[in-house]
Amino acid sequence: MPTPLPETVTADSVLRTDYQRSVAEYWNAHQQDPVNLRLGEVDGLYHHHYGIGAYDPSVLEGPEDTRDRRVIEELHRLETAQADALLSHLGRILPGHRVLDAGSGRGGTSFMAHARFGCEVDGVTISEYQVGFAREQAVRRGVADKVRFHFRNMLDTGFATGSRRAIWTDESTMYVDLSELYAEFSRLLEHGGRYVCITGCSNDVTGMRSKAVSRIDEHYTCNIHPRSEYFRTLTAHGLVPLQVVDLTAATLPYWELRARSSVATGIEDAFLTAYRENSFHYLLIAADRI
User: Fold this and answer.
1) Rounded to whole angstroms, what are the CA distances from 57 to 39, 64, 80, 250, 254?
2) Which of the residues 143, 165, 189, 235 has the least number of beta carbons within 10 Å of its own beta carbon?
């Protein structure tokens, strides 16, 4: 059994650097960001990631007074499809297994994992606001005993060695040092356990010179890693890539639709430019712990 985490922790014990404190402040400050809240209000699943798949063009047609609602619902469908794709790569998860959502946000994918597999889920995030929001959602859903959220650092979770059957990160790796992260995940995963990552990463040849990629970094206060760094660091820590899926073409429709929506933030053009010029890639990587 994993070592129980303390019920209360201090920010000083979780946030180890000035950069981590700035990232936490960013997400705590964006509590009412409509791009997350309005999409989550569609069905109560609140995500903090983007979407994949073709959108239904009919949402842009029809009565003008209901157009915004149709677009919001379609964007939410695409982001939930992205989470479904991630969960489909976790392998065989049984109700007795324990899994970790690293960078769990408001908890959307954690709830989907429990509903799909019946497993126990722990989510960790450095945003105290997100932890509180997700815990309230768990209580409302009646799953607080199975889906738990913690104010913890994904680089030092406090869980027991070998206690996780699966771990995932969904657009959260650009906030951390990959070597520290994968050392922790390698420790947490049981032998043969699975790690799945969905992330944006820069093209090693052209990405570091891309103004669009730099704009994304600046907007989200993150540090986008080159594509090769993922594979090099994973294998260095005994996490061997099993599947790699290029989702770049699949995520373009999401950004095209979002750019035409009421929840556009102004960063949409940077994503569209970066993907189209091939300086930025959207990848799913599934790796096994050997």
Assistant:
1) 18, 14, 18, 15, 12
2) 235
Token pair belonging to 131: 């932890």
Domain count, the chain: 1
> CA 270, CA 40: separation in Å to the nearest integer?
24
Q: Is 177 helix (H, G, I), strand (E, B) or coil?
A: coil
Please name the amino acid found at residue 5: L
| 211, 105 Cβ separation under 8 angstroms | no
**Residue 79 belongs to a domain:** yes
pTM of the model: 0.94
Q: What share of the chain is helix, strand, coil (3-state, %, to 5)?
A: 45, 20, 35
Q: What are phi and psi of 286, to 5 degrees?
A: -110, 125
CATH of the domain at 240: 3.40.50.150
Q: How far apart are CA 239 and CA 10, in angstroms?
A: 31
- On whether residue 5 sits in a domain, the answer given is no
The answer to the question of residue 6 being in a domain is no
- 235-257 residue pLDDT tens: 999 999 999 999 999 999 999 99
Domain range for 264 is: 11-289
Q: Smallest Cα–Cα separation from 50: which of 225, 172, 191? A: 172
Q: Is residue 1 part of a domain?
A: no
Question: Which tens digit of pLDDT belongs to each residue from 166-176?
Answer: 999 999 999 99
